[in-house]
Specification:
The structure holds two protein chains of two kinds.
Chain A: E1 4-6, E2 15-19, H1 24-35, E3 40-44, H2 50-63, E4 71-74, E5 77-80, H3 84-91
Parallel strand pairs in A: 2-3
Antiparallel strand pairs in A: 1-3, 2-4, 4-5
Chain B: H1 8-24, E1 28-29, H2 33-50, H3 64-67, H4 77-84, E2 92-93, H5 95-98, H6 115-118, E3 133-138, E4 144-146, E5 164-171
Antiparallel strand pairs in B: 1-2, 3-4, 3-5
Helix pairs in contact in B: 1-2
The chains are: A alpha+beta, B alpha+beta.
The complex binds iron/sulfur cluster.
Chain lengths: 93, 175
């Protein structure tokens, strides 16, 4: 998958973000992660086409049945939508 | 995918237009201007990408027919405003949120995953008593609308929701 890695000082948990480039909450999620120095990887699903998009959605479906953005995977935990308190909890911040 | 980004002037112009239209119709844009500006930017990006303003927080298919229910304002805005005080993206919010009485919380996705279920309301339904969509009448100006709940504010005369009465009449929609 065509993912982008963002380095950070906090890398004790693997963080992956399924996002849309046009979505305000996805942007805010990225800012939240970056403000907290969290190392993470993201993919903008709306910028993918055809098989690439299908591959990303198939991967996302392994984690959550609903297709909603942002979907944030922290370790084994799946968070749908940006709820800063829950995200903080999942990240151990 | 190469894309031309919307210019700040284009974003400002659409922001202003949507704001005026919202206020004229009894709706409100999110007072969090940074968020709203990004969503407006997303609408313009989708306009350039798909030819229509698909919801910025949902994955559009690119086929207009398949995306009709999520062209902004989407089919789900008003039920979400009723239930959560904000549309799914939080571009539109309730008066209580504008006044700062409530905060915007994440809105769960109500759009069915199954495309066949998305425009269910447009399928013929049995014309039995109680079936169909209720009709609401503004007691102030007589404006009629057929939807699950009356609007927060009458789009014609701006009377508040409590001035609406349900008529003994239901509308049966057919495709
Ligand atoms: S959720 Fe809000 S921004 Fe998205 S299409 Fe519906 S009304 Fe527009």
């Amino acid at each position: 998958m065509n993912t982008t890695h963002v380095p950070g000082t906090r890398s004790n948990r693997q963080v992956f973000l399924f996002a849309l480039s046009t979505c305000g909450w996805c942007r805010r999620t990225r800012e939240f992660l970056e403000a907290n120095g969290v190392e993470y990887t993201y993919i903008y699903v709306d910028l993918l086409k055809g098989d690439e998009r299908k591959e990303a959605l198939d991967e996302m479906r392994k984690w959550t049945p609903r297709q909603a953005f942002p979907t944030i995977i922290v370790g084994e935990e799946v968070l749908v939508g940006l709820d800063e308190d829950k995200l903080r909890g999942a990240l151990g911040l | 995918m190469s894309e031309s980004l919307p210019t700040p002037e284009q974003i400002d112009a659409l922001y202003k237009r949507l704001d005026e239209e919202a206020e004229a119709g009894g709706y409100h844009l999110n007072p969090d201007r940074e968020m709203t500006r990004r969503l407006v930017e997303g609408l313009l990006a989708n306009q350039a990408r798909y030819g229509y303003q698909a919801c910025p927080c949902r994955l559009a298919d690119g086929d207009k027919e398949a995306d009709l229910d999520i062209i902004c304002p989407c089919d789900y805005r008003d039920p979400d405003l009723d239930e959560h005080g904000a549309c799914y993206c939080s571009l539109y919010v309730s008066e209580a949120i504008v006044k700062g009485e409530h905060k915007v919380r994440p809105v769960p996705e109500r759009r069915p995953d199954d495309p066949a279920q998305r425009r269910q309301a447009l399928k013929p339904v049995q014309a039995e008593p109680g079936a169909g969509v209720p009709v609401w009448r503004c007691r102030v100006c007589g404006y009629l609308c057929a939807r699950d709940n009356p609007p927060g504010v009458c789009p014609i005369c701006k009377a508040k929701r409590e001035r609406f009465e349900q008529m003994r009449l239901t509308v049966v929609l057919s495709a």
